Amino acid sequence: MIYKTAVTRREHFNAAHRLHNKNWSSDKNIEVFGKCNNPNFHGHNYELEVKVIGVVNKETGYVIDTKILSDLIKTEVLDKFDHKNLNLDVVEFEQLNPTAENIAMVIYFLLKKHLDDNLDLKIKLYETPRNFVEFPY
Ligand code: NI
């Protein structure tokens, strides 16, 4: 039996977005996305949980150094997303609707490429205190 440990870092960012499918009519966008289709955008206080899962290193006692994880999240996610308009300012959402589902997926791939292959990564993103998504699941 190989026991693994999960290490979670919690972060926060504010961002604006608009949910919109440019292949649909204005009526259909409003029907599907409602207020989230507001042309002038709206904001959320996103709460982010980044969970790294792996075997504890015998020499350090760590799965991952939380300072390294914190710096990685800052560079790859917070510096790009915080106080930004996701649709207009973040290249990953030029062609991708910035739903909580898609934001969590983008965050996963931004971070995953910097982590050791033997570490698993799970993203939990709260768009409101009552709504959150998890990726991958
Ligand atoms: Ni929204």
Short description:
By secondary structure, this protein is an alpha+beta fold.
Describe the structure.
Strands 3-1-2-4-5 form a five-stranded mixed β-sheet. The longest helix has 16 residues, at 66-81. The chain has one domain: Tetrahydropterin Synthase, Chain A (2-Layer Sandwich), CATH 3.30.479. Helices cover 30% and strands 28% of the residues. The chain has four helices and five strands. It has 137 residues and is an alpha+beta fold. The protein has helices spanning 26-33, 66-81, 86-89, 100-112, and strands at residues 5-17, 42-54, 84-85, 120-126, 132-135. Nickel (II) ion is lined by residues 17, 36, 42, 44.
Q: Which ligands are bound?
A: nickel (II) ion
Q: Assess the beta-strand content as a share of residues.
A: 25-35%
Low-pLDDT runs of 5+ residues are none
The biggest beta sheet reads: 5 strands, mixed
Q: Could you give the count of β-strands?
A: 5
CATH class reads Alpha Beta
Helix and strand element order: EHEHEHHEE
**Main sheet: which strands, in order across?**
3-1-2-4-5
How many distinct helices? 4
* Structural domain tally: 1
Key descriptive features of the protein:
137 residues; alpha+beta; Tetrahydropterin Synthase, Chain A; 5-stranded mixed sheet; 4 helices; binds nickel (II) ion
